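Hey team,

Sharing the Type IV pilin PilA run so nobody has to redo it. Sequence (179 residues) first:
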Amino acid sequence: MLKQIKGQKGFTLIELMIVVAIIGILAAIAIPNFLRYQAKSRQSEAKTNLGAIFVAETAYLSENSRYGSFSEIGYALAGTSNRYSYRSPNAGASGGTAGSSGTAGVDLIACGTPATCTAATTAEGANGQIPSAAQISPTVAFTASAVANIDNDTLLDGWSVNDIKGGLDRALPDDVTMG
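Structure output:
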C-alpha cells in the first residue's frame, strides 16, 4: 500500500498558482464587459417605454389635435420596478398623472426600484442633463424623456423621444459609454 501512495502524482504549488493567475486575468477581462452588457440591457427599458409613449401620444394627437399628458394619453408603467423616471410636458391636464408628481407644467412618473434610483424632479430632469424640447428642436410638439442612474456611479443615463420619434437612437448623456 505504501508503494501505491508513492507512485501517485499531483499538482505542484507553482502549477496551481499559474492556474489561479490565469483565472484572475480572465475574470478581470470578463467582469467589466458583463457589467457593460448588463447596463445596456437596462437601457432597453427606457427605449421600450418611450416608444410606447410615442405611440400613445400619436394616437392621442389623431383624436384630439394636440398632445396630452401621461394621464390624458392613458399611459402608465406596468409594475413598480422601473429604473427610470419619465417626464413629459403637461400639455393639457391641470395636474400630473395619478401616482406621479407633475410640477410646473411637467408630468412626471418617478422611478420605482431599486431604492437607490434618482427621481428627476425638475422640468429639465435630474441635474438639468436631459435636453428639453426647445434644446432638441424649437418646432418639436412634444418630448418625453427618461433619466436614471443605471450603474450606481455619478453619471446619469438619459433618453428622449419627440413627435418625429427622434432621440431613441442614442442616450444623451450615455451612462454606459461614459461611465
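The chain has five helices and four strands.

Ping me if you want the raw files.
A.
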